[in-house]
């Protein structure tokens, strides 16, 4: 079983879903982030509980070489969309994305499946395949 599969199992035991993980370096420190989602939202207590459960598991099954800090949080209102599940969970939300070799676009996600997503851009519907998108994220219009 992979580390991500094990992390997902632990997260699910708390009634939440694993959105993704990332490893970053900030100010010379390595941070391993675990992003979670849950119907009704993610609160600080849930993040702390999952962090306390993940910490001893990751002490034995380190996700990175060397020392690191563990952070568990929601991916936020403005989050990366990296796989079909992410796009499906963002139906009805605003998205901005880069189309390979064609520039940028933004609109509202109308639907998504395993192949791509449909977005409404200025009252017109357009379908894009994931393979044609280099980067995508939700955004909030303040």
**Rg from Cα:** 17 Å
**Overall geometry:** elongated
Strand order of the largest sheet: 7-6-5-4-8
CATH first level of the largest domain: Alpha Beta
Largest sheet: 5 strands, antiparallel
- What percent of residues are in strands? 35-45%
Stretches where pLDDT falls below 50 for ≥5 residues?
none
Instruction: State the CATH architecture of the largest domain.
Output: 2-Layer Sandwich
**Count of folded domains:** 2
- Name the CATH homologous superfamily of the largest domain: RimP-like superfamily, N-terminal
CATH topology tier name of the largest domain: GMP Synthetase, Chain A, domain 3
How many individual helices?
3
Model description:
- The protein is an alpha+beta fold and 142 residues long.
- It has two domains: 3-73, RimP-like superfamily, N-terminal (GMP Synthetase, Chain A, domain 3, 2-Layer Sandwich), CATH 3.30.300.70; 84-138, Roll (SH3 type barrels).
- It is built from three helices and eight strands.
- The chain has helices spanning 3-12, 44-60, 84-89, and strands at 17-26, 29-37, 69-73, 94-99, 103-112, 116-121, 124-129, 133-138.
- The strands form two sheets. It has a five-stranded antiparallel beta sheet with strand order 7-6-5-4-8. Strands 1-2-3 form a three-stranded mixed beta sheet.
- The termini are far apart.
Outline the secondary-structure elements.
Blueprint: H1 3-12, E1 17-26, E2 29-37, H2 44-60, E3 69-73, H3 84-89, E4 94-99, E5 103-112, E6 116-121, E7 124-129, E8 133-138
Parallel strand pairs: 2-3
Antiparallel strand pairs: 1-2, 4-5, 4-8, 5-6, 6-7
